[in-house]
Amino acid sequence: QEEALAALEAGGSVLVAAPTGTGKTVVAEYAMERALRLGTRAVYTTPLKALSNQKFRDFRAVYGDQVGLLTGDVVVNPDATLRIMTTEVLRNTLLTTPRDLDDVMVVVFDEVHYLGDRERGSAWEEAIIFLPRYVQLVCLSATVPNADEIAAWMRSLGHDVTLIEHVERAVPLEHHYYHDGRLHRVLDGDGNQVGHLAGVGGELRAPNGAVRRLAERPPTPVEVVRALAERDLLPTIYFVFSRRAAEEAALSCEGLDLIAPEVGEENQRWALAQLAGLGAEDLTLPQVVNTLRLLGRGVAYHHAGLLPPLKAIIEELFAAGKLRAIFATDTLALGINVPARSVVISEMVKFDGQERRLLTPNEYRQMAGRAGRRGLDELGVAVTVYSPWVSFEETFDVARGALLPLKSAFRPGYNTFANLWQGPGDEERLAAAMAASLQEFQLDAEIRDLTEARNQLRKALNDLPSGCLIGEADVLGAYESDRKELRRREAAADEVRREIREGWRRIAQRHRPMSRGEVREALNRCRGGEVAHLADYGWAVFVDHAAGAGRFLCKAGLVAVHRPQDIDYVKAGPPRIPLPEQPTAADWPRVEAALAGLDLREAMEVVSRYQQAVAAEFQPRYGSRLGRLEKLEREIAEIRPRVEGSACHGCPELQRHRQIVRQRARLGRELRQVERSLEHADRVRRERARAIVRNLRAVLESLGYLRHGHPTSKLEELRRVYDANALTLVELIDA
């Protein structure tokens, strides 16, 4: 809850996937209250009219006339600040009168797993797709195992969705199996198997005729409810899968004494008071008569065919603890606040509109999740019942089975097309809407993976500190830039110096006063103290031969010269300069003074003519390089103080900061690449969606709803029929 509220306060959306009874509703209530506090409006959507009615009563009790209700059947205060509605009403409003939602800042989608409903999932997807991106979404469900994928889809639509998942129930849940007149515990509150009934159930599906005759009679609702009462496991919700079965099961329990007579009489008096608005004729309806009679016994039935006032009465009495058993269709499992100590799932097979099949783990979990009242029960109990058509093993597998991932049931409808299509230029707009569906998102694994990669890269970039970590935002960037420029210019200067040096040497080689052979011969005759002129160091004094090189003492100290071409001039023999046994750089001043006292005019003239000849040839050929070197040295002198004076220079954290900068650059490159790939994949997806739109348009053109892309009067009829079979209905009406 804290994580969800923080995300809402930050302006984001949330998807909360958590078991029943863990407080998801608090998140939705906070979002609604926050909308009021900010002076905006909010919408709370549910999949059922019954659930919308209950939410309307709950919010109306707190906020009074600020709450409205729109369910298709009932419209109360439609311009209210907080509006409760079925999701289909929201979807229809978005298609026909979207301006009615201009100041809505938050929309709650309760039981968001209805996205996967075969009949109604398209309406949920369209509602989420067509909502403006600035609207905060609050999506709640107990049975969305692939919540990360659903959140990623919503993010791909532009909503900043925080996913909050919680798997632990507030009240532990045990699973029992009713067989042979008693309850058998098969799973404890921690989900551990503690019982097994091998060979029980499913006998009538066995191929062996002899085994079939051994099938037992299925237990009656009276037997099961009596067993629950004996174990103090009431109140209970007894789930059956048809309205008729719910009524018959409830009426069969009329003879049970589940509540005190005075409580039953009070139930009946209160119910009659709530029905005061009904006419005398309505009070004689069988469902009214039966309900009033059953309320006196602490029993009721609940399904979509009940009158709304009766449903409200039953829900409020059950929530108040004045009813002990409700026999209901599985719609009661969808978020209506009627928790019980136990639930009974009467059969493990249901008809889904196309076939009779086993319940899915999701459907089972949705119903079983109603067991266990937070703050009242230490344990909830889910009971399944013996059936000769379904084995215990099959029942057990469903109870323990992993939740199935939510899969899109999106089907582009003709009514949606009709309401969005204004003219020939709308093809691209409709294609974009189709391409944005969860179905397309799930079909296109590449887009899903790329979207997740993009989100992870964005998060990684956001998690990295920005700018320099030790001071002003750009100081590290400026330091790195200056340092790079300094290195570049120093390298360029070194290269120019090398070119100048090599050029000088090539020219000098042609003008040297002594050939290499003459230098070698002179060096061989030198014994120490002879005067020489070195190409790189100027005047020097020969010291000795060492390791194939001549050693000289000069202003740079003691140097070894290996190549004859690096010696301009050497004079073997006197005059010689006396040297110590082990001369060092410290001896140079005395040696230099001794040189000054010698008559070296002849040697100096030779060296001077040589240098002049070299300079005369060198300047025209290498003068531009000298100018470039001077320019580089000025730039170096300008940049170096900035580098050495930067706060980053010598910083002990510099390497870590550089690593962060490199990470940011790498992540930025990867993000740009992923975004380019995502754009390409999205173009492919949009083209696929365009093909769907073209097919829808072709059908409507052929039936006269469009003429050359322009709406006809028939399209206006189609726009007003909000049904999955809208086109068929309009065609039948016009036939």
From TrEMBL:
<dbReference type="Pfam" id="PF00270">
    <property type="entry name" value="DEAD"/>
</dbReference>
<feature type="domain" description="Helicase C-terminal">
    <location>
        <begin position="220"/>
        <end position="421"/>
    </location>
</feature>
<dbReference type="GO" id="GO:0004386">
    <property type="term" value="F:helicase activity"/>
</dbReference>
<dbReference type="GO" id="GO:0070478">
    <property type="term" value="P:nuclear-transcribed mRNA catabolic process, 3'-5' exonucleolytic nonsense-mediated decay"/>
</dbReference>
<keyword id="KW-0378">Hydrolase</keyword>
<dbReference type="InterPro" id="IPR050699">
    <property type="entry name" value="RNA-DNA_Helicase"/>
</dbReference>
<feature type="coiled-coil region">
    <location>
        <begin position="443"/>
        <end position="499"/>
    </location>
</feature>
<dbReference type="InterPro" id="IPR011545">
    <property type="entry name" value="DEAD/DEAH_box_helicase_dom"/>
</dbReference>
<dbReference type="InterPro" id="IPR001650">
    <property type="entry name" value="Helicase_C-like"/>
</dbReference>
<keyword id="KW-0347">Helicase</keyword>
<feature type="domain" description="Helicase ATP-binding">
    <location>
        <begin position="5"/>
        <end position="153"/>
    </location>
</feature>
<dbReference type="InterPro" id="IPR014001">
    <property type="entry name" value="Helicase_ATP-bd"/>
</dbReference>
<dbReference type="GO" id="GO:0003676">
    <property type="term" value="F:nucleic acid binding"/>
</dbReference>
<keyword id="KW-0175">Coiled coil</keyword>
<dbReference type="InterPro" id="IPR027417">
    <property type="entry name" value="P-loop_NTPase"/>
</dbReference>
<dbReference type="GO" id="GO:0016787">
    <property type="term" value="F:hydrolase activity"/>
</dbReference>
<protein>
    <submittedName>
        <fullName>DEAD/DEAH box helicase</fullName>
    </submittedName>
</protein>
<dbReference type="GO" id="GO:0005524">
    <property type="term" value="F:ATP binding"/>
</dbReference>
<dbReference type="GO" id="GO:0055087">
    <property type="term" value="C:Ski complex"/>
</dbReference>
<dbReference type="InterPro" id="IPR003903">
    <property type="entry name" value="UIM_dom"/>
</dbReference>
<keyword id="KW-0067">ATP-binding</keyword>
<dbReference type="Pfam" id="PF00271">
    <property type="entry name" value="Helicase_C"/>
</dbReference>
<keyword id="KW-0547">Nucleotide-binding</keyword>
